[in-house]
TrEMBL record:
Provides the precursors necessary for DNA synthesis. Catalyzes the biosynthesis of deoxyribonucleotides from the corresponding ribonucleotides. Residues 558-580 form the Ribonucleotide reductase large subunit domain. It comes from Fructilactobacillus fructivorans. NCBIfam families: NrdE_NrdA (TIGR02506), RNR_1b_NrdE (TIGR04170). It catalyses: a 2'-deoxyribonucleoside 5'-diphosphate + [thioredoxin]-disulfide + H2O = a ribonucleoside 5'-diphosphate + [thioredoxin]-dithiol. This is Ribonucleoside-diphosphate reductase.
Amino acid sequence: MSLKDLHDVTYYKLNNEINIPVDGRIQLEKDQEALKAFFKENVNPNTVKFDSLKDRFNYLIKHNYIEEGFVNKYPFSFIEKLYKYLDSQNFHFKSFMAAYKFYAQYAMKTDDNSMYLEGYIDRTAMNALFLANGDQKLAMNLADELIHQRFQPATPTFLNAGKKRRGELISCFLLQTTDNMNTIGRTINSALQLSKIGGGVGINLSNLRAAGDPIKHIQGAASGVLPVMKLLEDSFTYSNQLGQRNGAGVVYLSVFHPDIIQFLGVKKENADEKIRVNTLSLGVVVPDKFYELAKNDDDMYLFSPYDVEREYGVPFSYVDISKEYDNMVKNKNISKKKIRARELETEIGKLQQESGYPYIINIDTVNRDNPVDGKIVMSNLCTEILQVQTPSIVDDEQNYEQLGTDVSCNLGSTNVVNLMASPDFGKSVEAMVKALTFVTDHSSINVVPSVKHGNELSHSIGLGAMGLHSYFAKNHMYYGSPESIEFTSTYFMLLNYWTLKASNQMAKDRGKVFHNFEKSKYADGSYFDQYTTKSWAPKSDKVKSLFDGVFIPTEKDWNALKQSVMEYGLYHQNRMAVAPNGSTAYIGDATASLHPIVQKIEARQESKIGTIYYPAPYLSNDTIPYYESAYDTDMRKVIDVYAAAQKHVDQGMSLTLFMRSTIPKGLYEWKDGRSDKMSTRDLTILRNYAYKKGIKSLYYVRTFTDDNTEVGANECESCVI
């Protein structure tokens, strides 16, 4: 028997019967039948068996499947103890999709892909042992978190931990280029290298001179950002030729850059092939001033980055445009061109309808809420990573005259349903922080010195959450209801508190803090004012009952933490970020990220095998009323839920807007008396609502069309943790 010779299996057919109602009833039991059949017909006969655990480890090490170094940090008697504990927890997948996803994408296989070499317990053990780095107590704590699915490391970490032949453990990278050919060349090389080792790459192009700007030493004119975008897209495509992922990159441009209209045009359906980009994602960096100009229906000026840098002495991205706008308009040394702000706003809406792009980064909101010294100028491929960067200067030999700081990020997620059932919320979060910190501490991206440098200074991590909607449904809360918003705020307040506690303890134990800690709002204590001056404890009886038995920090507790942080510091510059969850959410039987579900029975297209049906977690007659599709949900409710979390998250969140091309009647009051077709006006209203609610970033706009297709439904396989 071999995975290559599977015939007459029944699990696909049984799974598909979920989508065939009988007497008006969903056949949810068919999913469990498919799960049992999958193990009987696929997993059990095609898993390599060993006489003992010792034999298994010896075999895997001898044949270069796993690294020997991390194994040797433990007495083998401890590894046996850890396995005995994991076995005793009686883990079972809860759905066919969970098991299928794990064995298709995560389980280690023989070199010829004919047999499985591990099950879920083995992958859990690999992660616990590898991430604990010889610390037996931490290894046991991590095993406990992982086997109970309270913690889910990002795909690169969960997939690669412990393997001898593996990719990086990092999820994604952020780069910026400055306005010279050396830096552009270095950025393209960096994009090639980072795409090769895995992970999505975000690149800021706002500092590049616009099309038509002078190049004085050759008495010519610049070609603008579009040719650089084409070079980057080709680089991502080439670098992934031998990999299994599609090219994964996003480029960001300021909304005040003179090339902004052409930038947006590269994704239009009727774009000329010479300028069209197919796989590269687009993001727009939007200061407050743009919202003001559009609201007043004013003209707006687009400024030459070349001239701005000459006048201000810093790259374009580092100038506060909202503050300096009027001065820049008056400055005759800065060339500029004029357009209507609302026309640009409409262009953004049109493109979001057509393609789901661009992502939106509300950059002034981001920097107002940033407690760290420095400026944030961009985001990553999924819009949740927001960290300060400094520009690099590269000489003619491609060496760094000034080594700046770029970003690598490693992500993990709490499973809301399972973490709420933890016997010790704080202990669980502490173990997660330590696991993510191991990835940061042992990541060394030598091929891109600016990324390596940034990581060494910041020690940043990104802990988030998934399964929020499933928690709401399980506990009879409608998505976007007052109690759901209150719960979200309390949950993320706790995550913030415990990640701060863990980071503070780590700084105390190691005697080390992140770079420039002393210049942060943590160091002067001002960051904690929001917590020491009012209570964040739940108010309603419903939410109080949900947190019954869970420690809720008071103002006194926050003040004690404030004093400790001011005295001992924090190890991590950044701690939290909410990524879009993909396959790992299925494995954990959780709804993705903080979003509402798309379908009660999700039809998931899988390559080679067709459609797999996945019932929403905990779906039953009891919970079905609380599972309304995102496409039928007022997006202001989604924004409200995310805004409640964002108050406590130091970085960002991947917030997707779900729209129907034909808007359901009564969903948005401004549609009354107007066409029921989705318009750019609808998207403008929602973007402005998100901005006013303090949302830092907007990810895709996903549109469900009248012919039952989705626009803007791409996934980043690195950040979907």
